[in-house]
Amino acid sequence: MANTADIRNGMIIKLDDGLYTVVEFGQNKTARAAAKVWAKLKGVDNSRSIEKTWNSGDTIFPVRVERRPYQFLYKDEGGFNFMDTNTFEQITLEESKIDRADLYKDGQDCFILVNTETELPMSVELPPNVVLRVTYSEPGLKGDTATRTLKPATMETGATVMVPLFVDTDELIRVDTKTGAYVERVKE
Hints:
mainly beta; CATH 2.40.50.140; 3 domains
């Protein structure tokens, strides 16, 4: 068991028979009342987002989670198929447990968060950035570089990413997996 002083971003806690990830937290202190700890929480087993407030020093129930390296193999009607890079065992997960499902390509390295109490997979995370090939992009106008104008580009995974005008079809780009935004061009 832990108390509210142990809350950290990314921590997974058990609350009302559900698991939640701490997205943001802070303290409210007033002159006459006891300090309060608040947190914005995102559901691990559901997509709900809630806010919760505790009195300072209240007990919370953190869940021990391991990040295990996996490799994305393919997607079929059963779901997304992954292989453990250590044991070579394969598992299939439904799309609701996948973060940014439109950015996964065959052979992509990722991490699966596993609840160590039940040994069940909770969610899948990509690395901070992935490199994808642009399969279609409208040609940009020559000399239009004074403003940060963006255009849509279709990636090899089917995702649409807003890219600068100078990015053309068949180029490799780096994409931020948290926001889905263009980061930079990558040389082959």
